[in-house]
Amino acid sequence: MAHTTGESAHLLRGAHAKRLAEQRLREEIVRGVVVPGQWLVEPELGERYGVTRNSARLALDVLITEGLVERIPNRGARVRVVSTAEAVAVLECRQVLDGLLARKAAQHATAGRTDSLRDNLRRMRRAGAEQELLEYSALVREHHRLLRELASQPRASALVEQLEGRMVRHEFQLLLRPGQARQSLAGLTRVVDAVVERAADRAESAARAHLQDVIDALLLEPAAA
């Protein structure tokens, strides 16, 4: 009991602590501070982020669901290793799904319902111009969330959500390349423009083309050889 009291004196607990640990660990994985294959020890994570061990465990559970972390029986949790080949395979699946979602979003688009997409795009432009790449990466994820919401196609949305977490580290590393963020923004702008104009065929083509650009960039990585 004394240990619990001492822990609660300086470590955060509850829903806020879980969200804090989840956000910090996700950022460290995306940025490569915590590397693929690295073991994640709950007490150490708790101390690092200033939260209880239980909050760290709950944060790990969220990132396991996202595909960023995996739990190995009798050993613990570690950052999931996603090879370039697996990343390309995931993106090829997402081309079909994202194309469908963009098409559905264009079909369901109205002036009021596309405001959030356009506002998010403006924030992406600002983050890209200021080289705030971590923020830009988060806004790309928000773009896809908003598109799924507008598409109203729950099965495709659920499948994309299962695949999305596996790609965030690869996609962030690509953004570090000169000109990649600008190319990404151009591709996503074409998607938003087509959705706003309710051009379903063009929206689907733009979404698929954007992910093809990501695939092509990944295949240029030395590890892909």
From TrEMBL:
SMART domains (alphabetical): FCD, HTH_GNTR
PROSITE patterns: HTH_GNTR (PS50949)
Keywords from the UniProt entry: DNA-binding, Transcription, Transcription regulation
Span of domain HTH gntR-type: 15-82
Any one GO MF annotation of this record: DNA binding
Highest taxon above the source species: Bacteria
Protein name: GntR family transcriptional regulator
Cross-referenced PANTHER family: HTH-TYPE TRANSCRIPTIONAL REGULATOR LGOR-RELATED, TRANSCRIPTIONAL REGULATOR, GNTR FAMILY
Residues annotated as signal peptide: none
Species assigned in the record: Blastococcus saxobsidens
InterPro entries associated with the record: GntR_C (IPR011711), TF_FadR/GntR_C (IPR008920), Tscrpt_reg_HTH_GntR (IPR000524), WH-like_DNA-bd_sf (IPR036388), WH_DNA-bd_sf (IPR036390)
